[in-house]
Amino acid sequence: MSLNEYTGRMATLKVARISDFGYFLTDGEEDVLLHKNDTDREFEEGDEVSVFLYVDSRGRLSATTTTPAVTVGEYSWVPVVNVNPGTGVFLDIGIKKDILLGKDDLPVFESVWPSKGDLVYITLRVNRNNLIYARLASDQVIQEISVPATTKDFNKNVHGHIYRTARVGSWMLTAEGYKGFIHESQRRTEPRVGEKVEGRIIDVKEDGTVNISLLPRKQEALDTDSEKIMEYLESRNGAMPYSDKSMAEDIMDRFGLSKSSFKRALGRLMKEGKVYQDKGWTYKKENN
């Protein structure tokens, strides 16, 4: 087996000779350099060394004693460290060289590509030129590592990371290991792949997968929506040209709320005596 075939994998090699800048390791037929910058240990000729083989920035096969977070055939969550529009995102797997997750393995729309700091669940792949790339885990892989939820988990708050997204909805793996689906109606915006989200379980399926909502509970939403209206009123010295008779499109453009949500929040504020309406306008009461 050629050393190149170990690219992206761990290998145990023997120190063949030592130079000023590192160690030449061998499998008995081929050599590879373990640069001193790629190890924090010292070795002698004949020592066996466990290394990860990768291609450096100059296209040379190299070794490191750092065990990466992920290797070919193995999966792990790794952080995004840089985004290159049109090319893909770069990931930190623990070695000195960042690994590219190319645009062909990412959603078509860059708006839902991972951002710096997001976590993605990936493995490594090696192309015909012996270069290492990242590959997102498939739905089948996520299914294999997931654990089933039970009916006791209904309405439970959960958090986790998005591993797949589409117009119809998004898929996430929760911290507990539940595989969850977020229908488009249960999210205000489409989350990024790799983004950490928080929600609640709104259904537990027979197979143990769950449906999740990213929308706040009604009381929480009412509090937030009411605060949003009051903040806007205060920014306009207590008067705004919006009321429960306003057009739904105008309400959405200004507040990002549906008309029904706006009317509920406004009704609450009026009931609490904080605002009143007059001729299509809403006013903050002077004693509030």
TrEMBL record:
Domain of life: Bacteria
Protein known as: S1 motif domain-containing protein
Record domain Conserved virulence factor B-like winged helix: where: 227-283
Residue ranges of domain Conserved virulence factor B third S1 in the record: 143-216
Occurrences of domain Conserved virulence factor B second S1 (ranges): 75-134
Pfam families: CvfB_1st, CvfB_2nd, S1_2, WHD_CvfB
Annotated family: Belongs to the CvfB family.
Stretches assigned to the Conserved virulence factor B first S1 domain: 8-65
